[in-house]
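Worked example

This section walks through a single chain of length 191. The input is the sequence exactly as stored; nothing has been trimmed or padded.
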Amino acid sequence: MKYLIILLPVLSLFSCDSDDDNSLSPQVNQEYFDEVLGRYVLKTAYTDMPIDFNGDGVEGTDFFEEIPYCGFTLLLQSYDCTIVDRTSYQEIAFDVSYSNYTNDPRVYLNCMSHKDLFSSIVIDSMDESIALETTEYEENFMLSEYKTKILDFQWEDRVVYLTLEQEFYMPDGEWKTVIMNLEYEWVRSET
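Given that input, the structure is written out below as tokens.
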């Protein structure tokens, strides 16, 4: 009986210690991470209203048809998006177009350039949800440098849906604000 009284607290100590270890280790739904993480390619880009970006006199909402390329502009078919899980944070990086223009009266230039923008995200693999965590600094940088604001971000069935408010320099010399809807489809894991 005496040994049982001594042994009982020792066994309960090991039992509690084992429970504590399980509660401290985060639960991970690896299948969900495997579905979400990786490289996505732009498949659809359209605006909320018809607009003549390329100055051909025909307005449209399909950005693939309207974008004016020049110089070393990356083709829209090459735009991508990646969702990665770093050691201490998770992020999304995505290519967007922005107006590259000059006000020099001797040279008229209305080109689209591209920029890879970054934003923090939180992937909850147990809840199977992803939330964008754009900081005020990131938002201000995107707006001031590239006239771009993220309005919405969704992920569903290996497709990233981004809704952006963007301001573009038009062939008539005016700036125009439009809502851009972008869809990036998953193509491979990032390893």
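What to look for: The radius of gyration is 25 Å.
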